[in-house]
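Annotated sample (chain length 269).
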Amino acid sequence: MARNNNQTGKSPLLEFRNVTVIKEGNNVIDSITVTLQEGEHIAILGPNGAGKSSFIKTITREYYPVHREDMVFRIWGRDRWHVFDLRALLGIVSNDLQFTFTRDISAREAVISGFFSSVGLFTQEVTMDMEEKTDRILEFLEISHLQDRLMTELSSGEARRFLIARALVHSPKALMLDEPTVSLDLHSLHLFRQTLRKIARSGTGIILVSHNLPDIIPEISRVILMKDGRFWKDGPKKEVLTDSNIAELFSVPGISVKEEGGYYYATGY
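Output written by the structure step:
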């Protein structure tokens, strides 16, 4: 059972209770119950096909749950959201988004377009405040020197950092990352991890969705294990990332989970 650790009295950032999503006759999300607080850093870990991306799409209202009397489906205490307001509250970075931005626009334009939820700029009026905030974000993420390059000229890791910058223009309550290290080489992975850790330490909540154990940065303290459309385990990182849990999650016997420098690795398979 997923935890509810709200001790602040404020509305949770996310509150799901008995949420089910059906696609093509299958329960891609199966009676999920979970509460996430503002500023919380969590990871959702599971194999391919576990329902992780479907969970993200349910949050962003790309998927809608089956209506049931006992269902709760709230973000920041509200049941209803305009989709653009919601995407400003929760910054999303995904491989689908990166594919969408593989086009001949400058990296800076990609970031500024986040203010308008568009892919590039057309007739929108860009204000001085937008320009100044973009400058601050690019400097914070240490990518200002790349801003004039085209998105098609950037490496996968560089492009992903600009999409993170795009997600941060609205100062979201949480940054959600769906399989963020796919296609990154070791150097790009190192830079990406440093970027993510810096954001986490700045106070923005991190919701990391991955099938990759080493993606879980040290600042993440809570881990949810997901399989077959359900949240299977949920709790403190050290209690959840055990040999037996990871072996069962990925259906690979004999796994040994090791911790080094705040990161977790699986060996013995």
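Annotation: The CA atoms of residues 133 and 169 lie 7 Å apart.
Annotation: The chain has nine helices and eleven strands.
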